[in-house]
Design goal:
97 residues; mainly alpha; 4 helices
């Protein structure tokens, strides 16, 4: 890994017991975990707002003519569901490295 001297110095100060590569992996892991929490929070907000799980909400949306707000919430909720799976997979990959 080619790092500028400034970045390498900062990595050694902030992560004194890790190589720069290990520090980088830890930073990526932290970012993935933060994103996972953000998506989980979004899902809980949608569940609270609509008082149902995604699959029930999906059936409602697909069988009706929802308002533009409901339709946008559907897309955002679905994105959050997909992103959770992606972030969990990413976290597992990073932990394995």
């Amino acid at each position: 890994m080619n790092l500028t001297p400034t970045i390498e110095t900062s990595a050694r100060r902030l992560f004194p017991n890790q190589s720069p590569e290990e520090a980088f992996v830890e930073l990526l892991l932290e970012r993935a975990q933060k994103k996972l929490i953000r998506y989980q929070t979004a899902i809980r907000q949608f569940q609270t707002k609509y008082e149902q799980e995604f699959e029930d909400f999906r059936e409602y949306v697909l069988s009706s003519e929802p308002s533009s707000e409901v339709e946008q919430d559907y897309f955002d909720w679905e994105l959050a569901m997909t992103a959770i799976h992606d972030m969990r997979a990413e976290i597992e990959r990073l932990k394995a490295s």
